[in-house]
Amino acid sequence: MYNILFTSVPIMWYAVFDYEYTKEVLLQKPALYRLGLTNERFKPSVFWGWVAYAFWQGGLILFLVFFCN
Hints:
The chain is mainly alpha-helical. The chain has one domain (about 1-65). It is about 70% helix and about 0% strand. The protein contains 4 helices and no strands. The protein has helices at about 1-15, 25-30, 35, 45-65. The longest helix is centred in the C-terminal third of the chain and has 24 residues, at about 45-65. The mean pLDDT is about 90.
């Protein structure tokens, strides 16, 4: 029960109750869906850019910990 309560439930709560726009605004302005339809934020180049950035941060933290002790 610990894993269910403290790891998955907060994520589900956030996913269900967090939204940027109200439903009325989304119905009035369908252009807000354009970002998802044009696939601007989900391109492979964007994904691999974030992966490279994560490796850069991990390497930086690793070297800082090893060389600052």
